[in-house]
Each structure stands twice: as C-alpha cells, then as structure tokens.
Amino acid sequence: MELVDKIGVIYWSYKESTEIMAEKISNGIDEAGAKAILVNVVDFDLNTIDSYYKIALGCPAMAGEALEKSEFEPFFQAITKHLKGKKVALFGSHGWGDGEWMEDWESQVKGLGAILFDKGLTILGEPDKEGRHRCVEFGKAFAEF
Ligand SMILES: Cc1cc2nc3c(=O)[nH]c(=O)nc-3n(C[C@H](O)[C@H](O)[C@H](O)COP(=O)(O)O)c2cc1C
To answer: How many CB atoms lie within 10 A of CB 39?
Structure first.
C-alpha cells in the first residue's frame, strides 16, 4: 500500500456516537479511493503513527469540555510531536452547548503545526441519517484534501 493512500481514523467513544462517526468517515475515505484504517485508540500501536499520511482523530466532549482523560488524552499527548506538517481532521460527538471542546482542540492542533482540515466535525448526540451523511462527506473531502 502506498503511504499516500493510507489514512488513519483513530477514535475513542464512551457509548457509540463517535464510533459511528468514525465508521462513516472511514466509509467516505474509502469511497474517495483512499484507504481508511479504522482503529479504536485503546488498540492503537503508537509505533505506527508515522505510517499514516493523514489522520482523522475522534473524541467526544467529556467532563468540562475536554478530551477524555484516561485513554484519549494520553494517546494524543504521545502523538503531538508527530503532527507537525501532517494533515489532520478532528471529529466527535457532544451532549450540549456549542462545541467548546472542539474549538480548543482545533487551536491545540494548529499550534502543533499540523495542517488542520476544515473545522472539526461535531454532532450532537448520536448521528442521525443526515449526520451520518455529513460524516461520509467529511471523510470524502478529507481524503481529497
Ligand atoms: C462524564 C461525561 C462528561 C461529559 N461532558 C460533556 C461536556 O463537557 N460537554 C458536552 O457537550 N458533552 C459532554 N458529555 C456528553 C457526551 O459528549 C455525549 O454523550 C456524546 O454523545 C458521547 O459520545 P460517545 O457516544 O462517542 O461516547 C459528557 C458525557 C459524559 C459521560
């Protein structure tokens, strides 16, 4: 597989909303002709991070408009030095409010020198049919970015 085709979709999900988003984004990436590698963060091998040409990262808003602290945040901190110059997309589900955690996360990723794709994709609660469609389109556009 060419490095240029391989896009990691790495996510954490408490229930399943962000997981559904990750699956649909992966479908969109594949539909665009690239190859999505969908991995739950708990199964992610940190040694493989540089084998991805682009990465989509997913995490819901957790306590205090933050990334999930015990599994996702340590993973994210471990990959920060690998994000410089990399194309990165962010996504996640949230329960209320206007997605403050995503805005903070976007700023953080830009500050690390990553090339952020669009605005992070946020969905309130579980993605419905329209939300799932938005995820597929987001994946397609990220593959073409
Ligand atoms: C412990 C906990 C803390 C949460 N904190 C926030 C929060 O600060 N802001 C918010 O919008 N939603 C918050 N939520 C709601 C989740 O983001 C929402 O339920 C989301 O759909 C979960 O996604 P998931 O199904 O991928 O786990 C919280 C949920 C839990 C369980």
So the answer is: 17
Q: Ligand 1 atom closest to Cα of 16?
A: 25
Question: Is 16 close to ligand 1, i.e. is its CB under 6 Å away?
Answer: yes
- Residue 69's Cβ-side half-sphere holds a number of Cα atoms within 13 Å equal to 5
Percent over 90 (pLDDT), the chain: 95
Find out whether the beta carbon of 122 lies less than 6 Å from any atom of ligand 1. no
Chain Cα centroid distance, residue 140 = 13
Q: What residue ranges in 6-142 does DSSP mark as E strands? A: 6-11, 35-40, 54-58, 87-94, 115-116, 121-124
Give pLDDT tens digits for 27-49. 999 999 999 999 999 999 999 99
Pair of tokens at residue 93: 């589900």
71 lines ligand 1 (CB under 6 A): no
Total residues belonging to the chain: 145
CATH superfamily, with its number, for domain 3-144:
Flavodoxin domain (3.40.50.360)
